Amino acid sequence: MDEHALLVVMSVFVFVAALALIIQAGFLFGIYKATRAMQDNVTRVLPKVESLVSSSQTVVEDGRIRVAELTAKVHTLLDTTNRQMQTVDGFLTDAAARGRGQMDRAEMFLDDAMGRAQDTVQLVHGTVITPIRQINGLATGVKAALQFFLRGNRPSPDRATVDEEMFI
Question: Is 73 helix (H, G, I), strand (E, B) or coil?
């Protein structure tokens, strides 16, 4: 390549490079303007954000204090409830044990009463009813004997008729 063409090519590349630098400078100026506008907006909003952060911090601190108080009350309530449940559990356990004891005593009482009633029935049967039956049997025998002896040797017509009918 000759020198003249080389100079033209180099001039074109230098011109393109200069144009690229001018465009970059324009972009940088635009970025500078956008940054300035954003800085102005941030400067205007910053006091509001700071007051919001400050009030948020006070609300968070107040919330922490209230949560701590609430947590302490809940723990106290849970401890009291636990003690009350233990008391109720002890009461129910004691009542169940006493109830079982009373049921055992009632069962023993009923068993004893039934045993005594059976003994009484056997005693009455052995000492009262059996002699009454014996006396009744003896009285029936005496009555039959008296009837036989008082009737004499002759059979009554009714008796004779009954005897005869049995053999016919």
Answer: helix
Task: With respect to residue 138, please indicate whether it lies within any of the assigned structural domains.
Answer: yes
**Does some domain include residue 104?**
yes
Domain that holds residue 91: 18-150
pTM score: 0.39
Neighbours of 143 (CB within 10 A): 10
Answer for the pair 123, 115: CB distance below 8 angstroms, yes or no: no
Residue corresponding to tokens 């922490």:
64
d(CA 35, CA 92): 77
User: pLDDT digit string (tens) for 73-101?
Assistant: 999 999 999 999 999 999 999 999 999 99
pLDDT tens per residue across span 104-137: 999 999 999 999 999 898 888 888 888 888 888 8
Number of structural domains the chain divides into:
1
